[in-house]
Amino acid sequence: MDALTSSLAPLSRHAERCAEALTAVAAAASDPQMRAELAHRANLQHCAATELAARAGQQGAQAHDVPDGHREIPPFEAGEPGLLEYAAQQAGRAAAAYGALLREPLDDPELRLLLAHYYRGATELQRMLEQRVADFAPSYESGRVARRATPPLH
């Protein structure tokens, strides 16, 4: 059970980083409906982080402590699109961490179900954020085609 406990603590930190990224992008979101959705998803990630930390035997600030120099700071200067991309990366990392633990043998069926729920939520969140990033920027390919179609200036 000690190996499982040591695996849950990093999962909790992944969920907390994802929540922090979602909170940052929610604050910068221009669409009020998206802002509410992102704030709700951030709250869900905070809850997941707290639950995983409790299962790992960590309490309070100890659960989310990150060694000095290892805390990632959201790219606030990049604006909403950059924050969305950062949040999508954090959701992807959380999903990958959940998936890795789910591939391990787990004796606790309740924990397996909880991790599967968090995994599904993180993957859906990642897809939603990536779609939102794609909505912000025109496709690179379409931009390239449009430039080629323009005759050269002489």
What layout of secondary structure does this protein have?
Layout: H1 2-28, H2 32-55, H3 79-102, H4 109-136, H5 140-149
What does this structure look like?
- The chain is an all-alpha fold.
- The chain has a single domain (2-64, 75-149), classed as Ferritin, core subunit, four-helix bundle (Ferritin).
- Helices cover 73% and strands 0% of the residues.
- The chain starts with a helix and ends in a 5-residue tail after the last helix.
Radius of gyration: 19 Å
The proportion of residues in beta strands is: under 5%
CATH class: Mainly Alpha
Distance between the termini: 73 Å
Query: Which series of helices and strands comes N to C?
Result: HHHHH
> What's the β-strand tally?
0
Quickly give the structural class. mainly alpha
The name of the CATH superfamily reads: Ferritin, core subunit, four-helix bundle
Helix content: over 70%
pLDDT averaged residue by residue: 82
Report the uncertain regions.
143-149
Q: How many domain modules?
A: 1
Largest sheet: none
CATH architecture: Up-down Bundle
Topology-level CATH name: Ferritin
For the structure shown, list the relevant keywords.
Ferritin
Summarize the structure.
The protein is mostly helical and 154 residues long.
